[in-house]
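Protocol step 4 of 6: structure prediction from sequence.
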Amino acid sequence: MLHADELITIIIDALIVITIAVIIPLGFTLWNIINFVRDARKSRIVASTLTVGIGGFLYLALLALFDIEGEWYEAIYPFQLHYPLSGEYCWPVILCGMLGFIGLFALIYGRPERMPPLVTVLSTAFVILLNAFGIVFAIQLTKNFYHPIHILFYVYHFNILILSVDAVRSNMRAQSEYLSVRKDEFEDRKSLMWLYMKVTRMSQYSLPVFITLFAVAALIEIIAVLAGQGLDAPVKAFTDTADWTFSQQIPPPPLEYEGHYLCTVAAGGHKSLVKPVRLGRRRGTVIVVNRQLCIANAFEESIAEHFPRFHRWIRHVYDTYGYPLSRIITTPGRADIIYLMMKPLEWVFLLYLYLTDARPEVRINRQYKM
């Protein structure tokens, strides 16, 4: 039977999750769609800023739910994933993303009649690249989608697409109106007149047609990138990976993390707390080593040397309960709890080593050497 305070805590936690996972994304999506239909510039500026800022933060927070660790050629644990982008080739993609957001805000905040033509063209091109790489990255992640909350990735990309379409369309409409005012100035120049007519006609496209044109442009960009046209770095950014949709590399065998609960703690806990220091070798398998693990093993080694019968009993207890315990350490939070619970014993082990061993740090440091 739940107490009143426990029930209140559960309700509050549920409301927080619903707000973050449902209300905020859905609210921004509806707001952006309304702005698109109404063509409200001031509201669009506020909504776009909040969508990119808050939505981007939630996007990164959601991405952090994946336990991502290491390049494709690095050995990781079975519950972890390699980086979705190659660290060696990801910079062009990141640069295009940054330029895309700069171009998007240039179109949203800028006054079309005051923007130089080249700035408008470059901003539009960068926005298309932003959405192209965004779509590819969203597809890259789909292989490891296993929870309904992951649909928020698509919600964010959809909002960026809506903002991009709205910004480009609004800019074209404003350019059309600006050109219509100056129509008399270039009536005798056929090339400018032709451009004016094209911009005017495109600005009057209906929503479905315009979104289709934008999607086709993005799709062409994606196909060109994935087919290896031009620089191959953007392609390798997605393919020079393991565990993801476009990955083409085969990773090394995973590291062992079961059978020794302190090994599991060192490998699975949050790095800022458990503080892994290096890789080591245990029974022919590469493991992650932290100081707590080394101290515990050095203590066991010392006990085995001086009190072998006592050590056999300790070993029996450890083998009986340690392995089942390691099976339940399946999250970083649980590993952190075990690490903190082991702290008093770690201090006892360390005190014993410093009281009985002439060179305790040498004994500690040689544990699990490669």
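Step 5 (inspection) to follow. The two ends are 52 Å apart (CA to CA).
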